[in-house]
Amino acid sequence: MSFELQFHGATGEVTGSLHVIRSGAHTVLLECGLIQGSSENEQRNRDPFPVPVDDIDAVILSHAHIDHSGRVPLLVKQGYTGPIYVQNATKALCEIMLPDSGYLNEKDAEWENRKRRRKGQSYVTPLYTLEDAEKCLDQFEGVAYGDEVTVVPGLTLRFFDAGHILGSAIVELNSTGARESRTLVFSGDIGYRDAPVMNPAAVLPQADAVLLESTYGDRLHRPFDDTIEELTDVFEAARAARGNVLIPAFTVGRTQDLLYLMAENFDRWHLDKWDIYLDSPMGIEATRVYSQFRHLYGAKLFGPASNLPELPNFHQTRSPEESMEINEIRSGAIIIAGSGMCSGGRILHHLKNNVWRPECHLVIVGFQAYGTLGRRLVDGADTIRLYGDEYRVRIQRHTIGGLSAHADQADLISWYGEFPNRPPVYLVHGETRAQKVLAKKMRDDLGAPVFIAERGQSIRI
Q1: Separation in Å, CA 36 to CA 12, 209, 263, 372, 416
Q2: Sequence-separated (6 or more) residues with CB below 8 Å from residue 388
Q3: What is the pLDDT of residues 244-267, one digit of tens each?
Q4: CA atoms of 93 and 63, how far apart (whole Å)
Q5: What is the pLDDT of residue 355?
Q6: Distance between CA atoms of residues 325 and 139, nearest Å
Q7: Rounded distance between C-alpha atoms, residue 233 and residue 239, angstroms
Q8: Do 316 and 306 contact (CB within 8 A), yes or no?
Q9: Structural domains of the chain ordered from first start
């Protein structure tokens, strides 16, 4: 039985994943992500959902990252009462990440309203609150990899390991009628083949249509050995300069990769000369979840009887007071903090205290969306504004592309190439330039029928 897929988010951009599936009389949301980037882009999160909330029968999320899950509390706040299907580990991570997102929404609204009060302007309300986020969690239903679940009558779901972060899933949707069946495979976010912690992405044998992410569709990551050598050089330069090292990192995925690599390369990077701070309550909790679900990946991130990385000089700072104490350290601190795009969180306080110091080093280890502070720093901004004040950027900047949790062009083509029937493939979750390059490469190398998804476009499967 055929069904309809309509694209509504992460078309020509990386954040805000959201697609609509119509199967018979039923409507399903595939992803419900937050739009991230500039304040103008983030304002779009307040736009109405593409279908009436009362018409939605089920929601499916590929993984816990906020650009895939972050509007679920808003959906529930507006009246959605149905199930939200996720992989089991994703459920555990969303129980951490969504309340944190609600808390940050409240704090952002408070900060904005302080400015508006002085100007006599009307107040803003948060997109949703911590309480809203906590309420939505009762509707999450965890599903193990490979298990089959009936989402709505005639439409079944299976998750397979995408290798991106803990619990990340390739989504297989199968619609079965009296005479025929149709299968849609959504890649979710595919992991990089050399990912330090996660397993390689699963290979699926058949699809009638493929929805494929394209974040790095226009480039190849550096060989992983080169990445290790690059980080070796960064730590040696930072140690010689006698400053601090700041690493803005996504709290789920990138943080755990970094901790694993630091344990693996402890002697090579002379990390005994440093104190390593995980300055992120959510990162600390996410690392605990990684320990709880360690059976889902093969790398030895933790000791056999421990929930902590094997790093002798590792500090977890939960409270604001502990975080502020780090700002008194002038040399010898490696500080891992969110947010990964420098768009909020404790990393901003550490930038405020270190970005103007040429002896310090900033290590960018993840994708930086247009409009974010992280992107401006990567693009070479001479000055930045933090908490209303302007700072000259004198910190040494390093962009380490080889630590990406996303597949590069070769990985994406290789993963799709395992479908022998070359089903039509629709590119989402990528900037337009990356998508055009990937589409041409897939046509040239595989003869694939490739299309770049457009917002509002509908296809029949």
Answers
A1: 13, 28, 32, 8, 28
A2: none
A3: 999 999 889 899 999 999 999 999
A4: 9
A5: 97
A6: 39
A7: 10
A8: no
A9: 4-219+405-460 (3.60.15.10), 224-402 (3.40.50.10890)
